Amino acid sequence: MALTLYVDPVRWRAHQDVVTRQFPGMVPVVRGNGFGFGYEALAEEAMRLKADVIAVGTTYEAARMKDVYSGRVLVLSPYWRGEQAPALPGRVIRSVSCVESLRNLRGARVVVEVMSSMKSPGVSAQDLHLLRSGVEDVALEGFAIHLPLNRIGGPDAAGEVVACMERLRAAGLPLHTMFVSHLGAEELDEVQRRFPHTRIRARIGTQLWLGDQEATQFRASVLEVRQVVKGERFGFLQGKVPSDGCLVVVSGGTSHGVGLEAPKDLHGVVPRAKNVARLGLATANHHLSPFVWAGRRRWFAEPPHLQVSVLFVPQDVPQPTVGSELVARLGHTVTHPDRVVDCSAQAWPATTDAGTSDPASFGPASFDSAAFDRACEVV
Hints:
Blueprint: E1 3-7, H1 9-22, E2 27-28, H2 39-48, E3 53-56, H3 59-65, E4 72-78, E5 92-96, H4 99-103, E6 109-114, H5 131-134, E7 139-146, H6 157-170, E8 177-181, H7 185-194, E9 199-204, H8 206-210, E10 216-228, E11 233-234, E12 239-240, E13 245-251, H9 269-283, E14 288-293, E15 296-300, E16 308-314, E17 325-328, E18 339-342, H10 369-375
Parallel strand pairs: 1-18, 2-9, 3-4, 4-5, 5-6, 6-7, 7-8, 8-9
Antiparallel strand pairs: 1-10, 10-13, 10-17, 11-12, 13-16, 14-15, 15-16
Helix pairs in contact: 6-7
GO molecular function, one term: alanine racemase activity
EC number: 5.1.1.1
Protein name: Alanine racemase
């Protein structure tokens, strides 16, 4: 019994091939948990795509990757003087974001990050001229710029890259390669036309691995179903059951990433109102789980455990059966499944509830206030 990530390999790889054609010279980003697939699997995919460079987040990820990937490995986190890094082979490329770091990496492979409108680490426009002497002492792989996802005012994405490259050229720096992040295919083509003698290389992660959402699906095994009555106490916290129904134990807990949530940047009245409602429910200890049953996400009966979660299913909803699977709407970048299974979408294991295998289950669930009143009555 496991939390499983099912992957349709044909569809998944077809999308990768489309992205590869759109972005010649693309650098696949393989970092963190490997977008839920595992870094070993993504390293194999990068080699299938004939990528000569991959990008990872940290030196520790680079150390793990060196045994499963034979090409160059670009560490995105900038080098800082005095860091405690593991031993790395010479094919690892370090990012630097200031002149001092460049001077401490004599002889190393280096990519110089240039500050963008994100204001993330990078060499400022005023300091570019200071790089001229430093780049002569390293194996310069190129320059890089990391763009914001949203653009509010100022130049468009291509315009910002062009302006950056013009400053680099004006500073007399060797501009043979430029790495970019969050630049669209048409925008990349535009920049390439402006700088035909510079190789423009897009660093792509989410769009490459997760661009086709219907190629993957998380599912959790049902481990136990237990009948309960209203007011009965249960679980670690000995809370009361809100109404007659059943407690459903499913695989997947905090060690898998279940229950993890990043802060959201909310815009507009409706998203803010929904967030206020969610916080109000949380104050009353009502937390919506990512697990889908009978076409709806079910409520946690109590906070998720280390490796399992306990859900509450009210009496008027059909019960799942032990051994079946529930679709789980989980974020790839925070989820660590027990296993990854290659399986075409047509052959994904069926469940006893048609609603859980409906492709529409990937979308947001509608809120049924009547069902909530019945299932989560405060006792």
